């Protein structure tokens, strides 16, 4: 949620959304199968007030940092991470630079989703 300054009210970024996750494990063969299913669309509210709040917050955080620290953060900044807390290692496919890339994410690890 974020504070919409135009109407002075909290608004959701992601609307309520139903999602089903099915996990099946075969401990004898050390195999796991995951299934993530939704019949609903995930609705995100990317509005002008949301983007204004996002950019103002980002600018305020940047202004609070020293120039040296700011340069270090900007060069290493990644706004999105995929974190695996499933209890098992997972494999995913990502389209990156028009190429499909398969990635293994260990349990407890994270993968940076760089969108440059």
Please describe what this structure looks like:
The chain has 116 residues and is of the alpha+beta class. It has helices at 48-63, 67-76, and strands spanning 2-4, 9-11, 20-26, 31-37, 81-83, 90-96, 99-105, 110-112. A two-stranded antiparallel ribbon has the order 1-2. It has a two-stranded antiparallel sheet with strand order 3-4. The protein has a two-stranded antiparallel ribbon with strand order 5-8. The model has no long low-confidence stretch (mean pLDDT 80).
Concise overview:
The protein has 116 residues and is α+β, with helices and mostly antiparallel strands.
Q: Which labels suit this protein?
A:
single chain; 116 residues; alpha+beta; two-stranded antiparallel sheet; 2 helices; 8 strands; 34% strand; extended
- Give the quaternary arrangement of the chains: single chain
Q: Count of helices? A: 2
Strand content: 25-35%
**What is the rounded Rg?**
19 Å
What class do helices, strands and sheet pairing give?
Answer: alpha+beta
- Give the mean pLDDT: 80
The ordered string of helix (H) and strand (E) elements is EEEEHHEEEE
Number of strands: 8
Topology:
Elements: E1 2-4, E2 9-11, E3 20-26, E4 31-37, H1 48-63, H2 67-76, E5 81-83, E6 90-96, E7 99-105, E8 110-112
Antiparallel strand pairs: 1-2, 3-4, 5-8, 6-7
């Amino acid at each position: 949620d974020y504070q919409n300054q135009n109407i002075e009210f909290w608004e959701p970024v992601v609307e309520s959304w139903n999602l089903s996750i099915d996990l099946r494990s075969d401990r004898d063969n050390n195999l796991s199968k995951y299934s993530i299913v939704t019949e609903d669309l995930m609705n995100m509210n990317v509005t002008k007030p949301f983007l204004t709040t996002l950019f103002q917050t980002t600018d305020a955080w940047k202004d609070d940092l020293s120039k040296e620290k700011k340069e270090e953060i900007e060069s290493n900044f990644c706004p999105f991470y995929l974190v695996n807390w499933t209890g098992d290692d997972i494999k995913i496919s990502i389209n990156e630079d028009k190429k499909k890339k398969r990635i293994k994410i260990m349990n407890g690890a994270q993968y940076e989703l760089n969108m440059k």
